[in-house]
């Protein structure tokens, strides 16, 4: 005997819960299946437990996709202001941190509680520790066989996420279902992920683990200015996570180690004012001392400023402004915040997120080939795509 509902949502993450509560508010009978033991695990861990729930500067330009226009419709119809209004209605205190990023003052648990309260008010039934095993198409909808029983539904929404952070429930189920129903799935890879170094590159920096400094990272025509963190495996920090989505093995990656500074002019001034000072001492005034000293030990040399002519200072400035990083790879899905690639948007309606091949089948959130920058953008895509599907499913 199977349970019947109007809308079955696979995945109780940000997109799935938003879709469920939206459909429930329309009077639809909604069931959400979550394979983990609790809902919203990625929400709970995001932003250091404070949940960077949106970004007030969200535009389509903040997303990567084979079709950069696809995300425009959903994002235009459910904006950061719309989600902020929901947060405010539930009395959740929040603050803007930097670059338009909004965080909960208290805990990311507030966002999960808000979504569950909205689901409960809309009559949504959420089932945890329930894994969808198979999906078949019926005469008037879908039959979903799950670990706790079977479900008949008129509309099926796949919000199962991507492959990132499998310990929080990430899986390839959504891609499997997409292929089953005739959709193309674009190649996936880890995004917003630390880069790894190997060999000589790693040896030169690994003992500086924990050192952080502001940089501007550039790759394939894209640049991000923010902090970089040296780790025992390679490089991390917001600037590196951001650029990682644009980098693939073999691509040239450059760092401006002193962004915003006219380094050549500064070094000439220091030569006049402090001719006896060593280069490493001058650089240590501009960046962490250990990092400055390592640059001079391994790459730049270390002489008193008075011994460095204009050409030498120009070369040093150029090197610091275009520092090459030879990364060997990334830390992979284990620590990646998102999955790049996914269900090809050519097979979906940008207005409703419904399959162009199978009426009543929807794909939303991270499983779709739409990936945001670091800083609340991926949550905004989850809210917007979930809302778009929930309004019609």
UniProtKB/TrEMBL annotation:
Keyword Flavoprotein annotated: yes
Q: Which domain of life is it from?
A: Bacteria
Among PANTHER family, the record links this protein to: OS12G0638800 PROTEIN
Q: Upper taxonomic classification of the species? A: Bacteria, Pseudomonadati, Pseudomonadota, Gammaproteobacteria, Lysobacterales
Q: Which cofactors are required for activity? A: FAD
Domain RsdA/BaiN/AoA(So)-like insert: where? 189-338
SUPFAM superfamilies for this protein: FAD/NAD(P)-binding domain, HI0933 insert domain-like
Q: Which UniProt keywords apply?
A: FAD, Flavoprotein
The protein in question is named NAD(P)/FAD-dependent oxidoreductase
